[in-house]
Amino acid sequence: MGIGRKGMSSSNAPAGPKACEAIANTMIGHFTTRLEVEAAKRGALTADDIRHLAEAVMTAEFGRFQSTYRRSYDTCSATREAKQWESTRKRPFDRVLMKAFAHLFPPRQGGDGGQGLLSRRVIPGFNMAIDKMIGPALYEQCQSKSQAILDRHRTGSGHDWQAIHADPQTHALTTDVLMVVAHYFGNFERRREWLLAVVNSHLGKSADGADGHWQLTEHGFAELMRALFADLRATLISAPAPLRHRYGDHSVDTVEVFLRRLDRA
After folding, report:
1. 164-220, pLDDT tens digit by residue?
2. Most CB within 10 Å of its CB: which of 1, 26, 170, 257?
3. Residues 197 and 243 in one domain
4. DSSP labels for 12-73?
5. 213 and 98 together in one domain
């Protein structure tokens, strides 16, 4: 007997990597059965016979398995995106940085949000863009330092996020990062287009389909960046001397130029 073919109906389709394994088993099992039938008819099969049979199967029966291919691909993609989303939620620095513009997300029960200008689908691409702008070494340092801050503010039910965001070390960490980000936008228009491309090509999965066609626009970019730099802008107005002492006049001037350009966006 040949290799058994596993069913791939929509009701019992396996999930994640098993979906890819299942489609391979389905196709190998189907082809093996065809080989057995032809071998029984002819008595023996040559290498040319097998090759011609494989070509015939791919040509004549490809359409028959289109729905199987699509279902397997969609299942693997959904599982991968769900894991990426969960990984994002667990990375402490991503959450610390996102807090600055979380009020631009749609409201949801028991979470941040309010205005609805941005979709939460922006998060994976935004985090990827930050990683590229500041470099993987600094990005991982930020994750480690953020975890230490979270550990200091752990409560019996989780974390005291109000205390985390008020922590001076949180402010210092985010300021270090934003100083680097501002430098990255020396060529404002070109870097804005780059960030839009990164975000829109790595959008997270739509939770309910309501924002399935959402894209980050230039207006959304400006609002996100204004929110992200709001605390740093306030510090530049109220107490610029410590910033200039820590980062130097050139770096602070670069941030001010970026903020002025952002205001015209």
Report:
1. 989 999 999 999 999 999 999 999 999 999 999 999 999 988 766 677 789 999 999
2. 170
3. yes
4. T---THHHHHHHHHHHHHHHHHHHHHHHHHHS---HHHHHHHHHHHHHHHTGGGHHHHHHHH
5. yes
Q: 72 and 95: one domain?
A: no
Return phi, psi of residue 42, to 5°: -95, -20
- Please, are residues 203 and 121 in contact by the beta-carbon 8 Å criterion? yes
* Shared domain check, 153 and 32: no
d(C-alpha 73, C-alpha 112), whole Å = 33
Task: Tell me which residue of 202, 193, 199 sits closest to 216, measured CA to CA.
Answer: 199
**Structural domain tally of the chain?**
2
Residues 21 and 139 in one domain: no
Whether the CA torsion 193, 194, 195, 200 is positive or negative: it is positive
Domain membership of residue 10 (yes or no) is no
Residue 203's domain comprises: 91-264
| pTM, two decimal places | 0.64
Report the candidate in 211, 264, 231, 259 with the shortest Cα–Cα distance to residue 105. 211
Q: How far apart are CA 154 and CA 161, in angstroms?
A: 9
> For residues 20 and 76, is the Cβ–Cβ distance under 8 A?
yes
What pairing do the DSSP bridges indicate for beta strands 158-159 and 154-155?
Answer: antiparallel
The DSSP call for residue 167 is -
